[in-house]
Amino acid sequence: MDQAFEYLRHKILCPEVTEAIRQGNDFVVCSVAKLPLSSASEWVHDLYGFSLALLAFGFVFGAFTGNVLSGAIAAVPKSQLETAEAYGFTPRQIFRRITLPQMWVYALPGLSNLWMILIKATPLLFLLGFGDIVYWAKELGGIKTGVYDYPHPDWRAWYFAILMIFYLALTYVSQSVLDRLSNRLSIGQATMAGKAN
After folding, report:
1. Separation CA 20–CA 25 (nearest Å)
2. Tens of pLDDT along the chain (197 residues)?
3. Which of 5, 36, 90, 114 is 20 to 30 Å from 107 at the Cα level?
4. Per-position DSSP letters for the chain, written without gaps between them
5. Distance CA 178, CA 128 (A)
């Protein structure tokens, strides 16, 4: 996405440049087309990187979420919708009273899976150079670091062990909350969980 934005800016702001933008493995645009500009403050660079990551995660996980919700709506038994229509419910009432309460039972397993994948995907921001907690674990634990004035032993294993415990705790708490929510939404529904409740 970053290269697409810079490419568009290059075509608009520097139409006189005729050299190829792709030069081997390099992506070369004119200096005014760079995003953000090299003269911009550090917080602008951080905000731009965070915005790109947020946009990328939004596109990817938004598409998956839309697919999960679409499948959940389609999983609601058609006979119930037809019965509601026969009783004179409007399409809005059918959606609000029949489809919406039941679709969550079908959607929640997929949504919880997406949430867990998102938790596991956020450390990928570290590979982009974004200063997330994985970046700071590496930075603070390294032998030579810009944070400390003196070299110290390699503490990265300890920092990453603490980070691993943090991610395990986060997924455990998330799964506990999602299990309770699933049990709550399954009450009175025609599912195995609903029959057990």
Report:
1. 12
2. 788 888 888 888 888 888 888 888 888 888 888 888 878 888 888 788 888 888 888 898 999 999 999 999 999 989 989 999 999 999 999 999 999 988 998 999 999 999 998 888 877 666 555 666 676 677 766 666 555 566 667 777 888 888 889 889 999 999 999 999 988 888 776 654 445 44
3. 90
4. -HHHHHHHHHHHH-TT--S-SEETTEE---GGGSSS-TTS-HHHHHHHHHHHHHHHHHHHHHHHHHHHHHHHHHHS-HHHHHHHHHTT--HHHHIIIIIHHHHHHHHHHHHHHHHHHHHHHTTHHHHTT---HHHHHHHHHSSS-SSSSS-----HHHHHHHHHHHHHHHHHHHHHHHHHHHHHHHTTSSSHHHHH-
5. 30
- Counted domains in the chain: 2
**Do 47 and 23 fall within a single domain?**
no
- The answer to whether residues 44 and 24 belong to one domain is no
Q: Give the Cα separation of 80 and 89 in Å (integer).
A: 11
Return contacts of 91-99, CB within 8 angstroms, 24+ apart: 99/73
